[in-house]
Design goal:
The strands form seven sheets. This protein has a six-stranded mixed beta sheet with strand order 11-12-13-14-15-16, with no helix packed on it. It contains three helices and 30 strands. It has helices spanning 11-16, 246-250, 402-424; strands at 3-6, 8-10, 29-38, 44-52, 69-77, 83-89, 108-114, 120-125, 128-132, 139-143, 163-166, 172-179, 187-195, 207-212, 226-231, 234-236, 263-264, 268-269, 274-280, 293-299, 304-307, 326-329, 334-339, 342-346, 352-357, 369-374, 379-384, 389-394, 431-433, 438-440. Strand 7 (108-114) and strand 8 form a beta hairpin. The longest helix has 23 residues, at 402-424. Helix content is 8%, strand content 38%. With 441 residues, the chain is mainly beta.
């Protein structure tokens, strides 16, 4: 079913901070979408943020109309796309407004996953995972660790993973971080692993490492061993991690130094045993279009069995706009990717079955969207970055029919967007909900 969902701002939040919804983002405020996912029940969860920062406003400012602020927002929708509740978490600034500490572990590149028991997992780098009740009313457990930094005293914690993806059988596809990756003095995503046991508020499972990015991170000590991430029965760290690494496997295809300082994307499950692991070369200030990237197919034993074929490093580059998301439908064994140049679909063998060219009039609107997930029902979830709307696109049984299905969805999006404007009366595409229950986590 084609649905269009708004990303609402709580009316109480807009009123408390006296947000000028018509102000340009160049004045220091903005709304940003981070991730959208769906539960097997059909409910949808969206993670996004709102912030305001003014350079000459002090940390002790008590006027809500002037004080700097920042929040992460979680919104839950019914299967029909009706917003049910919103939660505020992770206040970004310590100002004079008396904001309470959040029980949600904050970090970079926050993502969502719905666990088999219905709990919502919010993950962030480095290896911070928070379990939240399905109705967003409370935090069940936070697995948190500060992450080691160079020249700072090591502080132990209770980490889990920087991102999670649930396979059809309930396994968890995880990404964990290590210190010293590419010789950096911080924790960077480096390990892809699988957890066969459930993650709950009472216990976290052991993650079995199946692939690594950097084969030999620098300057590690015994403190950098993670007991819950294991390779060959021992904690990952020092000299123990899967080899050959992804960069070592890719080295024969290109110059070795082109993969120096490469980054690990968020893996996705193509099936219970096969995963798509994105690897991207380093980025440059002057532009990175043409840099190498690979969507590798890796099985649960750590063997690189292939890749998603059919993309040109320059003509189909995800570096334009930093469109690095790859999503998959593990029930139907398909993978999808959207960037500024097209929407791509692959089968289980990694063969490209559909390419929707965004230079054509019909698909040019896709350049405004970000692909975030494929639902258990086989629908693609896309977020419009400026209009703050989520579009669900049903994928047909035959990938050859995908162009027609996307055209229908884009036409429906225009109609449904018009209906939402009449219902919500947004200001510059900012949707305010005054009657939505708001939880503070």
């Amino acid at each position: 079913m084609i649905r269009t969902l708004p990303l609402p701002l709580p009316g109480s939040l807009v009123d408390a901070h006296r947000i000028d919804l018509s102000a340009l983002y160049s004045t220091g405020w903005g709304v940003d979408a981070f991730d959208v996912t769906a539960a097997p029940s059909g409910e949808i969860y969206a993670l996004y943020g709102v912030h305001r920062y003014t350079w000459n406003v002090g940390d002790d400012e008590r006027d809500p109309a002037l004080a700097n602020f920042g929040y992460r927002l979680l919104t839950r929708y019914s299967p029909d796309g009706v917003p049910l509740a919103t939660a505020l978490c992770c206040p970004a600034y310590r100002n004079g407004l008396g904001e309470a500490e959040s029980a949600v572990a904050n970090g970079d590149r926050m993502t969502l996953a719905v666990l088999p028991d219905g709990a919502l997992a919010v993950s962030a780098h480095p290896d911070r995972t928070t379990l939240i009740a399905p109705d967003l009313s409370s935090v069940l457990r936070a697995y948190d660790a500060p992450g080691r930094q160079a020249f700072e005293e090591f502080v132990p914690g209770d980490p889990f993973a920087g991102s999670l993806t649930v396979t059809p059988s309930g396994r968890l596809l995880c990404v964990t971080s290590e210190y010293g990756v590419h010789r950096y003095g911080s924790c960077i995503a480096n390990i892809v692993g699988v957890a066969d046991d459930p993650l709950t508020a009472d216990a976290k499972p052991t993650v079995r490492a199946v692939a690594s990015l950097d084969p030999a991170p620098a300057h590690q000590t015994e403190d950098d061993l993670r007991p819950h991430v294991r390779h060959r029965g021992e904690p990952v760290g020092l000299d123990n991690r899967p080899r050959p690494s992804l960069t070592e496997l890719l080295t024969p295809d290109t110059d070795r130094w082109r993969w120096d300082q490469s980054k690990l994307g968020r893996p996705t499950a193509l099936s219970d045993e096969t995963f798509v692991v994105p690897v991207f070369a380093r980025t440059f200030r002057g532009g990175s279009r043409g840099q190498p990237f690979v969507f590798a197919l890796v099985d649960d034993q750590g063997e690189m069995t292939g890749r998603l074929h059919g993309l040109h490093e320059y003509r189909d580059s995800p570096f334009t706009g930093f469109c690095f998301n790859v999503v998959a439908d593990p029930h139907r064994h398909r993978a999808f990717h959207l960037n500024r140049y097209g929407l791509y679909a692959w089968n289980a063998d990694g063969r490209l079955r559909a390419r929707l060219d965004t230079t054509t009039k019909a698909f040019k609107p896709l350049t405004r969207f970000t692909l975030t997930a494929c639902t258990p029902a086989g629908e693609l979830l896309l977020v419009h970055g400026k209009q703050h709307l989520v579009l669900s696109v049903p994928v047909p049984d035959e990938l050859g029919d995908l162009p027609a299905a996307v055209e229908d969805a884009l036409r429906a999006y225009a109609r449904q967007r018009t209906a939402l404007k009449k219902q919500w009366a947004p200001t510059d595409w900012h949707w305010v909900a005054s009657d939505l229950p708001v939880h503070r986590l």
